[in-house]
Amino acid sequence: MTRTLLLALLLPIAMRAQITLYTVNNGVETPIGAVLDLGKVAAGDTASVHLRLRNKGTTSAAIRYFFADGVGYSIDRPALPFAIAPGNVQDAQVNFSNATPGPLYPANLRVDSDVNSVSAIVIAAVVVGPVLTVFPACTGSNGPPASIDFGLAQAGQLRLCNFSLQNPGTQDMTISTFKVTGAAFQISTGPSAPFTVPAGGAITFVVTFTPTTAASYTGSLAIETRTYVLTGTAFNTPLPTPLLEFDAGSIQSAQQRRLTMRLPTAASSSASGNVNLAFVPDSALVTDDPAVVFLATGTRSLPFSVTQGSTLISIGGQTSALFQTGTTSGRIRFTLSGISTAGDATTTLTIPAAPISIDTATATRRTGDLDIQVTGFDNTYSAGVMTFTFSDIFGQAIPPGAIRADFTQDFRAFFTKAQAGSAFQVRVSFPVTGDTSGIGSVDVQLTNATRTKLQHLVFQ
Predict the structure, then answer these.
(1) SS3 assignment, position 419
(2) If we measure between CA atoms, which residue out of 171, 175, 166 comes closest to residue 201?
(3) Number of domains observed in the structure of the chain
(4) Where are any strands of DSSP class E within 297-368?
(5) What domain range includes position 15?
(6) Same domain for 118 and 137
(7) Residues 377 and 448 in one domain
(8) 204 lies in the same domain as 227
(9) Is beta strand 226-235 parallel, antiparallel or unpaired with respect to 178-181?
């Protein structure tokens, strides 16, 4: 009876928490046994395994020790100590890399918590790995992950990559694993595994990429200790070069213009992409004009599409697209992306330099002051000199006649700081002694690099 009571008291303490250790592959957990074998690792490469600590208990567990003690091993995990709530997990990664070939590199993988400890022996063999050379027109990357890109290929057409597999070691190398996976990828010429590459020698082989439809493709090339990701993109027969057309009339600043797109001949297949615009200003004071955008989205890119057998191109789901020309002289360049065409459809519109454009102008009397306010834009960013000629209520010029003021530096400072187009608002005040009721109007001249703009204002 006493023994039964003792077990009943100890049981809740033992079940408080339990840390277990797993490997995870494609989301599937596998308990780690006494030995975790990383297999063969090419000298200088890194082998990594996804680990998971799971707390199966009903209380939080404090992880105090979590290391893989061995030459070439490391663990990516949170800083110690850290806690795992009941029912929760903590992922980590054990890594191994060594440049010296050897039959066995062991490590003691151990996890200590305030409840229990878990351990396993990790082993890896370091071998001299084959060296793969990728010849143009394909490209290779050491990653991670290591990859080979076959680039663009027309759907239904074959594109091939040539490879050389070298043995840099002093002993013959046996290649037991040599295969390609993935739709559209295939080894067309080369040896069948297993085969031997002599010391210091090399073999060549060819992998083909034959996509059936326009899409992005992935696959893999496994060669002994290494696996390379294969990628390629297929496109349909190029479209005839699209024609970008605009509504009639000369292109100027501060306009809303309409873009339409069509094909000179019917499309052989349905296709889609993006039409993009970019702006290059004439003035060195600014680098852009953010008002040059498509109106529908306020952005510089819109999707377009065309259906098989049609010449009409839909832009953003519409038959045309409106865009703003901004308030800066320069060039708007339209380009296409995400699609293959028979020729370059790039089209450029030139926004010419123009005199200062005045939106509103007012002349106002105040006690002791005459205020002149002008809003507008100067697409050359060269405004500066302003001339004011005051007249009485009978239209006679008031001495001393034309009053010239140079605000060039003020305009330059404003435009440089604003970086938002050439729109401006200027207010000039003239102090007056005595009665201002006899001053009837003022002629304002605003000058930029093109010519002078004259505005006649009546005082209110």
Answers:
(1) coil
(2) 166
(3) 4
(4) 301-306, 314-315, 321-324, 330-337, 347-351, 357-366
(5) 2-127
(6) no
(7) yes
(8) yes
(9) unpaired
Quick one: 175 and 271 in the same domain? no
Is the CB of residue 397 less than 8 Å from the CB of residue 446? no
* Residue-wise DSSP of 226-289: EEEEEEEEEE-SPBPPPEEEE-SS---TT-EEEEEEE-SS--SS-EEEEEEEEEEES-TT-S--
| Amino acid (one-letter) located at 213 | T
Could you report the average pLDDT of every consecutive run of 10 residues in the chain (460 residues)?
A: 38 58 94 93 89 94 95 96 95 94 94 94 91 88 85 88 92 93 94 94 95 92 91 88 96 97 92 95 95 97 95 97 98 94 95 96 93 96 96 94 95 89 94 90 95 93
**CB neighbours of 417 closer than 8 A, spacing ≥ 6?**
none
Same structural domain for residues 135 and 25? no
What count of other Cβ atoms lies within 10 Å of the Cβ of residue 59? Answer: 12
CB atoms within 10 A of CB 63: 22
CATH number, domain of 372, equals 2.60.40
**Listed residues 191, 211, 235: the one ending a domain:** 235
Question: Are residue 116 and residue 170 in the same domain, yes or no?
Answer: no
Is the preceding omega at residue 352 within 30 degrees of 0, hence cis?
no
Task: Count CB-CB contacts under 10 A for residue 88.
Answer: 12
